[in-house]
Structure formats: C-alpha cells, structure tokens
C-alpha cells in the first residue's frame, strides 16, 4: 500500500512551525541554485520566510517550546529504563538550540535589510513580475559568477541554520509523540477529541484518491473525507484510515 500523510495543526503556534518548516526545507533544498528556476524559488522562499518571521513573538514561543522539551527529557532521565546517553545527547542539543534562540535579536534582520530581496518583494504581488524588464537587478544577479552568487546566498542562509534545526527538532519530536490508531469514518465523517494536542496526522492509501478536510482546535476536531475527483469520485460508507494525535 502506498500511503500519504496529511497533517493539520490544532494550534496557531504549530501552524506557524509547519509553515516555517516548509519554507526552510525549500530554502535548504534549492540553495545550490543550479538553475534560474531554483534561484527564483530560493529568493521567493526567503522573502516569504522573512514575512512569516514578522508575525507574533516567534522567538519567545520557540524558546518556550525548546525549554518545555528540556523539561520533558529531564523527567524521562529519572527513569531507570531509558537510554541515558541518548537522553543526555538530546538535552545537550536542546540546550544549545535554546541558548542560540535566546541570544538572537531578530531571525530575519539580515533578510529584511537586504536590498535585492526588498526589490523583489515589491514585485511579487504582480503576476509574472520577475521578468528581466521588471527586475533588472535580479537579472544581473542571476548572471553573476557562481562563486559570487554562493557567497551572497551563504550570507542569507547561514544565519538560518540553527532556526531550521530548532523548528525541525520541535516538529519531529511532536510528530513522534502521537500513537497511531486505526479509525473508521462513516459516510465520510469522523470526529473525536484531542485534549492538549497540537497536531493531527491522517494516513490514507493514495490509491483511494481521497483526501481529508480537517477542522478543529486543541481539544476537538472533525474530519470530512472528500474524493480527489469531485465530479466522479466517491467515498465509501466506511473508510478505514490511520490517525495520530500529537
């Protein structure tokens, strides 16, 4: 069975973490800019990342989550039945990330102050607004020597390394807290409680060509399953799937 996993945040904070994870994954995936398409994807993702980082007090929430995880590992360390070396390694890693977060003033300061990124930002709202006649400075940048390009990119991306590691660590550990259970949706609907949870994960067989439409908050959620082909597809009266509340 080929499986596909759908995720849905149950808190606004987790919604932000997932968006940051997605943008950071893209940035680090395409930072080699082997083509102009990759370069444009990198630049747009950096601009979007900078805008997301402007919302709310991300630094405070990030530090709190890392500190909360440290507290959880401290409790686990008291158990005689755990791998204490592994626990210690996690504690060292989380403490290092927390200290880095604590010391930074603004995660996106270097992006907000960059002239090229600011010029591109002004044109992103225009469909097709990255043509060379719209952005001649971008056209020049795309034709810079590879070494010069990579030095500039390194200046954008290097300060984001510990942010990416922090987000990846928090989201990965959150995903791993959820226990998988088989559930059945009747006539395309399923609802349940998820007390003090932050993330839902729904696993389906991709060959069913069905996707979940999830709505919910921290304590309760509802899932409506819909056919990928809205005109001709169907959803069985009883649909078995796997769900995790994390």
TrEMBL record:
Q: Specify where it is mainly localized.
A: cytoplasm
InterPro entries with a match to the protein in the record: ZapD, ZapD_C, ZapD_sf
**Gene Ontology terms, cellular component aspect?**
cell division site; cytoplasm
- List the subcellular locations: Cytoplasm
State the superkingdom: Bacteria
Matching entries from SUPFAM superfamilies are given as: YacF-like
Q: Which Pfam family, any one, appears in the UniProt record?
A: ZapD
Q: Which GO terms describe its biological process?
A: division septum assembly; FtsZ-dependent cytokinesis
Gene3D superfamilies attached to this UniProt entry: YacF-like, YacF-like domains
What HAMAP family does the annotation carry? ZapD
- Spell out the PANTHER family in the cross-references: CELL DIVISION PROTEIN ZAPD
Family (UniProt): Belongs to the ZapD family.
The entry's function note states: Cell division factor that enhances FtsZ-ring assembly. Directly interacts with FtsZ and promotes bundling of FtsZ protofilaments, with a reduction in FtsZ GTPase activity.
Protein name, per record: Cell division protein ZapD
């Amino acid at each position: 069975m080929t499986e596909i996993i759908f995720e849905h945040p149950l808190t606004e904070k987790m919604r932000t973490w997932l968006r940051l994870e997605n943008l950071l994954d893209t940035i680090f995936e395409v930072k080699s800019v082997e083509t102009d398409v990759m370069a444009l994807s990198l630049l747009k993702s950096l601009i979007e990342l900078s805008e997301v980082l402007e919302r709310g007090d991300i630094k405070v929430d990030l530090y709190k989550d890392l500190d909360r995880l440290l507290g959880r590992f401290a409790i686990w360390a008291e158990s005689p039945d755990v791998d204490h070396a592994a626990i210690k390694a996690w504690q060292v890693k989380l403490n290092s990330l927390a200290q880095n977060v604590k010391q930074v003033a603004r995660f996106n300061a270097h992006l907000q102050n960059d002239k090229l990124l600011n010029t591109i930002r002004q044109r992103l709202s225009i469909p097709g607004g990255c043509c060379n006649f719209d952005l001649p400075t971008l056209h020049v940048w795309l034709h810079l020597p590879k070494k010069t390009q990579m030095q500039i990119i390194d200046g954008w991306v290097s300060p984001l390394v510990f942010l990416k590691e922090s987000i990846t660590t928090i989201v990965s550990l959150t995903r791993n807290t959820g226990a998988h259970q088989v559930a059945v949706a009747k006539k395309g609907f399923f609802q349940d409680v998820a007390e003090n949870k932050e993330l839902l994960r729904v696993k389906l067989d991709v060959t069913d060509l069905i996707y979940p439409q999830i709505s919910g908050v921290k304590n309760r959620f509802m899932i409506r399953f819909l056919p990928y082909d809205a005109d001709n597809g169907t959803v069985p009266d009883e649909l078995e799937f796997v769900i995790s509340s994390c």
